[in-house]
Amino acid sequence: VGTRFICAEESSAPKSHKDKVLKASSNDTMRTLVLSGRPLRLIPNDWVKSWEKEPARIQELCDQGVVPFAHDMKSKGEDATVRRQLLDTVNSLAGQCVGGISTVEPAQKIVEDMVAEAASMMESNAALISRL
Question: Distance between CA atoms of 73 and 28, rounded to whole angstroms?
Fold first, then answer.
């Protein structure tokens, strides 16, 4: 659900993050440990793809309690290109529902639409339950 709110009008997500979400399909996300040391989903950039080619190195760092993001920030953070890639990575978080997001709307409308869809599904599913 959080991914949908990236594209809320009230969201503080940068325009570049919103644009990535609007353009992405559900197949464009990947699960990774490189940003937080815990599994999360994002739209990978070149920095993430480069790390994902070294899963043993990711695991080795994580086993030592070192997150690859923090590792690169500390060891390569002076490099402006690396800093841009790291910032871009943070602004690439997105779940698989990203493929169903095509508009930027007010949060109120997003919530109202979710409630209406849930109510509709519950009503249609109730008809499938046999009466005792």
Answer: 25
